[in-house]
Amino acid sequence: MDVLALMNEKVFLGQEFLTWLWYVSEEMGSVQLADGRLVDVLLGERLVLGPVQGQEGTRVTVKGRETSLAEARQALRRGKLVESLRLGLMIDGEEYWLTLEAAELGLKALKLPPTAPGGGAPEGLEGLVLERISLVDAALRGLEGLLMVFLTQRLADEKGGELWAALKAWAAGRQVEE
User: Where are the beta strands (DSSP E) in the chain?
Assistant: First the structure.
């Protein structure tokens, strides 16, 4: 099987991960990673839902802070999953904003926390570059940690049991029975 065919076959995983991130942002607020760090998850100003991989249908796009998520929730209830979203992550007191795409499970945009000005000296510029590299690394490690938490829950049993029960109840607007 070639790489493109494999990616197309597994695109549902990206949709499920992004839908789970939306759920986390509303229901849990934060996730503890395997390394013990706590990551706060914030839903941004853009959310695109589409049909589950392999199905036909329209897309729903929600933009802006004032926009109600009612239309997106309705699409979720109809079986659509998140294809793209803008997401904020608070990691170690730093705020990162990312745009994620489900199809490639990829990062489309990344806004880093502000860094101290490096001044005009070459040493200052080198320090600034190293600090930015460190911030990119922290964001990617945080995102990877979230993916690992999701996969652990998703693969807990054949159907992801508790995870799917929680997601379905959330999508329907109900509380999960414990």
Answer: 30-32, 38-50, 60-63, 81-91, 94-101, 106-111
Q: Which of 7-16, 101-110, 134-143, 164-173 has the lowest mean pLDDT?
A: 7-16
111, 96 contact by CB (below 8 A):
yes
pLDDT for position 178: 42
Helices (H) and strands (E) in the chain, counts: 5, 6
Distance separating alpha carbons of residues 110 and 155, to the nearest angstrom: 28
CB neighbour list of residue 79: distance below 8 Å, 6 or more residues apart: 51, 52
Furthest CA-CA distance within the chain: 60
- pLDDT at residue 177 greater than cutoff 50: no
The Cα–Cα gap between 154 and 170 comes to 16
The whole-number pLDDT of residue 71 equals 78
Number of other CB atoms surrounding residue 29 within 10 Å: 13
